[in-house]
């Protein structure tokens, strides 16, 4: 695998170090000291974004809009469950999901074949979009509040969250979940939630993401894998992995500005 020089962010009180690992889709990077029989890595966190949901197809806002998966979304997650089957079978995981329906349904599809019990955690919800929840995108635009500074404290919609509040909620949930982690953790959540988890994992916080103007792409039904490596660094082993969707016939969409 290809690794980059460890990096730390001195501005944040939580100093973290990380490597990026690149490997062909379908392969598992293994550390013999951390490996568990069957190819599963200890101290792993698997992040799964829910599959396609009704707000994607009905022109609704996301956030706290509480909608079901579409039939396509269910098939996407079934494809991921099939891919994970040889890794999940016979092993114990802690399965935790946002309590919004699209995340719960995703977790149920993933966990049911393997007998996993599901814990729902409201701290893993998408960003609270306040009174825009349940509205169409066109309706929500009329409810948007004027931007204020600092941008991290701007509330996009009345009764909603700012980016700072959203990040702090997700970070608190992750601190709680990892404090008692004794086995690999599967988290089913949302695009914004997973982006915040990545910022938390890297120790940059949401302020670091805004300052350096970066983000992460997190597609529906994608898989991202975090783990502590043998150098005791916080590693991103996989990011936005959708190989299971390609093999299931959903195609491969690469976004290029041409």
Describe the structure in your own words.
- This protein has about 260 residues and is α/β, with parallel strands linked by helices.
- The protein has one domain: Rossmann fold (3-Layer(aba) Sandwich).
- It has eight helices and eight strands, in the order βββααβαβααβααββα.
- It has helices at about 55-60, 70-90, 100-110, 135-145, 165-180, 190-200, 205-210, 245; strands spanning about 35, 40, 45-50, 95, 120, 185-190, 225-230, 235-240.
- A six-stranded mixed β-sheet has the order 5-4-6-3-7-8, with helices on both faces. Strands 1-2 form a two-stranded antiparallel sheet.
- α2 (about 70-90) packs across α3 (about 100-110) and α5 (about 165-180) crosses α6.
Features:
258 residues, alpha/beta, Rossmann fold, two-stranded antiparallel ribbon, disordered N terminus
Condensed summary:
This protein has 258 residues and is of the alpha/beta class. It has helices spanning 54-58, 71-88, 101-111, 137-143, 163-179, 191-201, 205-212, 243-247; strands spanning 35-36, 40-41, 44-49, 94-97, 118-120, 185-189, 223-228, 234-241.
What fraction, in percent, of the residue positions are helical? Answer: 25-40%
Main β sheet profile = 6 strands, mixed
What is the total tally of β strands?
Answer: 8
Q: Identify the strand order in the major beta sheet.
A: 5-4-6-3-7-8
Gross morphology is globular
For the record, the CATH class is Alpha Beta
Secondary-structure-derived class: alpha/beta
CATH superfamily descriptor: Phosphoglycerate mutase-like
Instruction: Write down the overall mean pLDDT.
Output: 84
Number of domains: 1
N-to-C series of helices and strands: EEEHHEHEHHEHHEEH
Number of helices, counting only DSSP H or I runs of 4 residues or more: 8
């Amino acid at each position: 695998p290809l690794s980059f020089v460890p990096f730390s962010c001195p501005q944040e009180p939580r100093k973290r170090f990380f490597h990026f690992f690149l490997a062909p889709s379908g392969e598992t990077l293994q550390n013999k000291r951390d490996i568990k029989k069957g190819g599963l890595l200890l101290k792993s966190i698997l992040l799964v974004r829910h599959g396609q949901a009704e707000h994607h197809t009905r022109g609704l806002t996301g956030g706290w809009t509480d909608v079901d998966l579409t039939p396509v979304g269910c098939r996407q997650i079934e494809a991921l469950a099939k891919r994970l089957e040889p890794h999940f079978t016979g092993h114990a995981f802690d399965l935790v999901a946002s309590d919004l329906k699209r995340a719960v349904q995703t977790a149920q599809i993933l966990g049911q074949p393997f007998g996993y019990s599901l814990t729902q955690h409201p701290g893993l919800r998408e960003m609270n979009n306040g009174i825009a929840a349940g509205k169409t995108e066109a309706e929500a635009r009329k409810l948007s509040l004027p931007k204020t500074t600092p941008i991290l404290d701007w509330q996009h919609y009345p009764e909603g969250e700012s980016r700072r509040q959203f990040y702090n909620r997700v970070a608190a949930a992750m601190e709680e979940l990892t404090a008692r982690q004794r086995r690999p953790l599967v988290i089913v959540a949302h695009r914004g939630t997973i982006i915040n988890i990545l910022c938390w994992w890297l120790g940059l916080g949401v302020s670091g993401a805004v300052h350096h103007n970066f983000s992460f792409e997190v597609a529906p039904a994608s898989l991202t894998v975090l783990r502590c490596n043998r150098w005791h660094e916080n590693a991103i082993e996989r990011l936005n992995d959708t190989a299971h969707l390609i093999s299931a016939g959903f195609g491969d969409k690469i976004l290029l500005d041409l």
